[in-house]
Amino acid sequence: MYKIIKKVDLTPIITLMEVDAPRMAHSAQPGQFLIVRAHDRGERIPLTICDFDRERGSVTIVTQVVGASSRQICHLNEGDSFTDFAGPLGQPSEFIHKSKNELSEMKFLFIAGGLGTAPVYPQVKFLHSMGAKVDVIIGAKNKDLLIFENEMRSICDNLYICTDDGSYGKKGLVTEMLKELMDSGKKYDQAVAIGPMIMMKFVTLTAKPYNLPLIVSLNTLMVDGTGMCGACRVSVGGKTRFACVDGPEFDAYQVDFDEAMRRQMMYKNIEVEADHKCKIGLH
Description:
The chain is of the alpha/beta class. Helices cover 29% and strands 31% of the residues. The relative contact order is 0.13.
């Protein structure tokens, strides 16, 4: 059993949990994910590792209520335990293989949308520790759904915040902020976008004319997390890849986003039905 040692409600629908998991904390790397089950009859849920503390032996996850299983996770409290907390899984971010000297000469741009801010955080934190220059764009629907602002400010060089309704930061989409930065003459060695699939698609379309190297994370496609269910199949460079075992990070310009979004919608009705049953106590 894996005990929850800290729980913070970041927004009414987004919850942060720090979980006692020493072995995972020892081996986790930025970009990887884990599988959780809230109870012995619970669904396997893949979640990106938001942070890890090797000395404390803890791993941090952030969960947004989108269906029945995520609702069950968010209803757990400090002192409760997960039945399963397995990982780290997936391939870590490619930049962890570079030396400190190499990274200290590089400049990165991260574009985070909504909950995508959580998996961006450990990557920025790692690069900051290696001396790299990092700028971050965070997008949210409104100020109340913005997460990790203060944490990100402490580890990046420049933070740009966008909200759809203009309630905080710059009004508009992350793509508009990206275009503004590139048109102003900003140069980056590598960009990374993590967020909703539609956001990553349009970030890719926006970045392409600038020849900006871009990586995207397809973590939202994953279901089983081991490559056995096939739900996260996606075409990358014309070849079939599995987000959970081959990724979750891929070259953005090689990803067939339209296929990925069609696959993502396959389980939408089932998810909505399950969440309704959960709310009325049938699960």
